[in-house]
Design a protein that fits this description.
17% strand, three-stranded parallel β-sheet, 40% helix, 2 domains, single chain, 6 strands, 9 helices, GMP Synthetase, Chain A, domain 3, alpha/beta, Rossmann fold
Amino acid sequence: MMQEVHDALESRDAVLFIVDVTHRLPKAPGATDSGKATGRMGMSAAEDDFALSLIKKLECPVILVLNKMDAIPKKDLLPLMAHWSTLHNFADVIPISARKKEGLELLLHKIVGQLKEGQRYFPKHQLTDQPERFLVAELIREKILMLTGEEVPYATAVVIEKFEEPASMKKMKDGKLPVTKISAAIFCERTGQKAILIGKQGEMLKKIGTSARKDIESLLGTRVFLELFVKVQEEWRSSRGFVEDLDWRRQLEEIAAKQAAEEK
């Protein structure tokens, strides 16, 4: 584990040093350090020192992120910032509240400001190296995440079972865009999850489909006819074979092989 940490630090452009401000406040003048935390998290000064020893060896920018600033009085924030700033020459000190989403835009801006412009690996017009089928599946899964909350999303997988592109991208005689026909299966692990995904009288599945279809149409530049089905595959995340079948490269190879066989 330690080797993995060192390897990760060696291959970085910038590092975030994140501190839970509720875990240990600075000592009062003249106080002694018992080596134990005075806060809720149960971390020791030795653990803080160890973490700091790792970043002191780095030559890249290190941004200090003070999280949970909403959980302490505002008068304590400046002393905390001053305390931690004496321990290392941080590139920036950013107080945030992840729970209340405060300070996150500033943090993102500071991170981007520390990153060097990388080498261009693809043409300017190419936004991604992922195939459209993969992006469509991810858009559907995104809507599941957004609309079902924490009830089922991490136990779901989306497989594109049919993807029929129009023969021409030209508008039809009635002025409408051509139609891409897509059929996708949403896999979950339990019947209870299936019921949540479908919803009462199919309302949840309809919401997922309607929301995903709009984004897919923007991606493809066509109208989209989208069919969604929910299937139960028990403990699919533990099934190596099933997970391998989700690989879009493997799916494309199977589609190509099927098309070649049909042409013969």
